[in-house]
Every structure is written in C-alpha cells, then in structure tokens.
Amino acid sequence: MLDFLDISKPFDRLDNPVTLEIERAIIRWVHAEARLLDAERYQEWLDGFIDPEIHYWMPDMETRRRDDPRGTFKYGESAYFDDNWRELEIRVKRYNEPSAWADNPATRHVHLISNIEVNATDDPALFAVCSAFTNVRNRNEADQDIIHGRREDVLRAVDGGYRLLRRRVLIVQNVLLSKNLNTFF
C-alpha cells in the first residue's frame, strides 16, 4: 500500500484509474486552478482550492549520477518551498503589501498544465493526480522566466468539490536563474 500523503515518497505505482466522470471533474479543477493562478487571484485559490492540511513542497534538484542512491532530491534537504497552510497564507498576504516590490508592477503568468493522470487511492476520498506544467512569467520589459516540471498532487473530495492536500513540484531545471519565485505551481 502506498502512502500518498507522505511527501517524501513518489507516486511510483499509479494503476488505479478513476471513472471518466471523476477524471473529467478533476481535470476541470486543475484547469480552474491554473486560471486563478494566472489571474493572481491567490486569496480565492487559497480559500477555495487548498485544504487546511496542505503540504506544498518543491525540492531543490541536484545533479547526481544515475547510480547514486540519494537520487536528485531528498525530503528534509534543500527546498524552494516546504509550506503548510500558514506559510501559504503568509505568501498570499505578501502579494497585497505595498512593499512587495517584486510584484509591482504585476507579474504576468501563464500556467500550461498537461499530461494529467487521475488515479484512485486506498482512501475513496483521496485522488492521486500527476501532471506536467510550464510556468511562464513575464515582468517589466525584459524579465521572463520559463519553468518546466511535473506535479504530484493528492486531492481530497470535499463537499462536492476537491481541495489540494499535497503537492510535490519537481522542476527540470537544476539551477533557477529567476530573480525571484513569486509564483505558485
């Protein structure tokens, strides 16, 4: 049995597809989330899409040999994000502060989400969702960042909808050349 809530463990076995109705509802959820993030409607995202027990983790990727047993990342080591609800709430509030110079003028975002796979878990209220993304951010005249990666999410069915309970963001870049990471994935 896989522990889908353990952020340190990858989704290495996903062979339990859901019904087409559930799959379609979750794909719509993923696209609606991307639209909110593109529009910087972060408070609405936090309040309507994020579970209070969220674990949001984006490890720092290291280049290692294929035969290195440590792999490219390990939970508890360097991470860009390792957030719970309170930390996400602080980040969201920061966007609205006049002193948030990295967000004024506003950053323009595009979240392209693809390769969405939805699987059932041993808990009928939890769903394992894998996707690939491209996050394009543009600010001012010349600042543009393009970040590619994969997401491993656990969604919880709540009141006829879904909430993000766990997100692991695995980027393909070894070194981020961005001036900041004022974005969510």
From TrEMBL:
InterPro entries in the record:
NTF2-like_dom_sf (IPR032710), Rng_hydr_dOase-bsu (IPR000391)
CDD domains tied to this protein: ring_hydroxylating_dioxygenases_beta
One GO molecular function term of this record is: dioxygenase activity
Q: Which residues form the signal peptide?
A: none
Show the NCBIfam families listed in the entry: PRK10069.1
- Alphabetical keyword list: Dioxygenase, Oxidoreductase
> What SUPFAM superfamilies does the record tag this protein with?
NTF2-like (SSF54427)
Q: Name one GO biological process term.
A: 3-phenylpropionate catabolic process
EC class of the enzyme, as a word: oxidoreductase
* Protein name as annotated: Ethylbenzene dioxygenase beta subunit
Is Oxidoreductase set as a keyword in this record?
Answer: yes
The answer to whether UniProt assigns keyword Nucleotidyltransferase to this entry is: no
Q: What family is this? A: Belongs to the bacterial ring-hydroxylating dioxygenase beta subunit family.
EC number, as in UniProt = 1.14.12.-
